[in-house]
Amino acid sequence: MKVFISADIEGVSGVVHGEHTMREGREHDYARMLMTKEVNACVLGALEAGADKVIVNDSHGTMRNIYHEQLHEKAELILGAPKKLAMMEGINHNFDAALFVGYHTKMGSQGVLNHTFNGRVIRSIEVNGIELGEFGLNALVAGYFNVPVVFVSGCDLVAKEAKALIPSIHQTIVKQTINRTTALNTHPVLVRELIKEDTKTALLACKEISPYRIDSPYTVKMTFLNTGQADAVEILPYVKKNGPLGISFVCKDILECYQLIRSSIMIAGSIS
Ligand SMILES: [Zn+2]
C-alpha cells in the first residue's frame, strides 16, 4: 500500500495563533514540533495498516517545518518550495490513499485560523459554484489521480467541512473551535494516539471511499481582498475580471485549475 500525507500546521492541537504559524520565533518552533509529532503518528498508523511506501509533503508556509529526524525512517519527506502541486506535490496515480494532517477550514467560515492558501489575499474560491477551501481543492487534485482522501485531522469545523464533501472520510478532531484564535485542545499525547488509530482504521477501509471529483469543465471564480489583487491577476491568460474584487476562468483539467489558482495567489500576494 502506498500512502500520501499532506501536512499543514493550523489544524494541529495547541496551534491557535499567527505566532504559531508564521516563519520564526519560539511559538513557531514549538508548533513545528507539535506538527511533526502529529504527522509521525499518522505515519505510524499507516505503517501499522501495512503501508510499504509513505510520502509526506510539508504543506505549510515555507514548506520547511517538519523536523525530519523525528519522523519514522520509513517515511520520505518532501521539503521546500516552490512546488508545482504545492500542498499536493508528490501525488500520482500510484498511491492507494491520501491523508490530510493539521488541516483548517476555508476563509470566512468559522474554525481555528480559517483561511484559503493566503489569508491576506483570498476571500473565496469557487469551482462550478461550490465554495472550496484547501481541503476541497487538494482533494480534487487527489481525485484527478484517482486517489481517495480517507482521513483528515484538525478542528471540529474542518472535520465538518471535509464530511460535507466526502461523507465517509475518517477524522481525528484535535480541538474544539471557540473562535478564530481560541480553541479547547485535546492533550498532544492523546491526539497522537487518536491519529495513529484513526489513520489505521481509515487505511484498512480505504477501498470504501471514492476519490473526490467534480465534473469537467471547471469554471473557477476567485474573490480577492483588495481590488489591486484582482487587477494584477487579470494579466494571466484565460483570466477575466468579473467585478472589482473577482476574477474567473474556465479549464478542462483540474491540475490546470489548481496551478492557475496557485499562480494567481502568488501574483496577487505581491500586491500590497
Ligand atoms: Zn498552513
UniProtKB/TrEMBL annotation:
InterPro entries to which the protein is assigned, alphabetical: DppA_N, Peptidase_M55, Peptidase_M55_sf
Signal peptide: none
Cited Pfam families: Peptidase_M55
Gene3D superfamilies, per the entry: Dipeptide transport protein
SUPFAM superfamilies named among the record's database cross-references: Dipeptide transport protein
Protein name: Peptidase M55
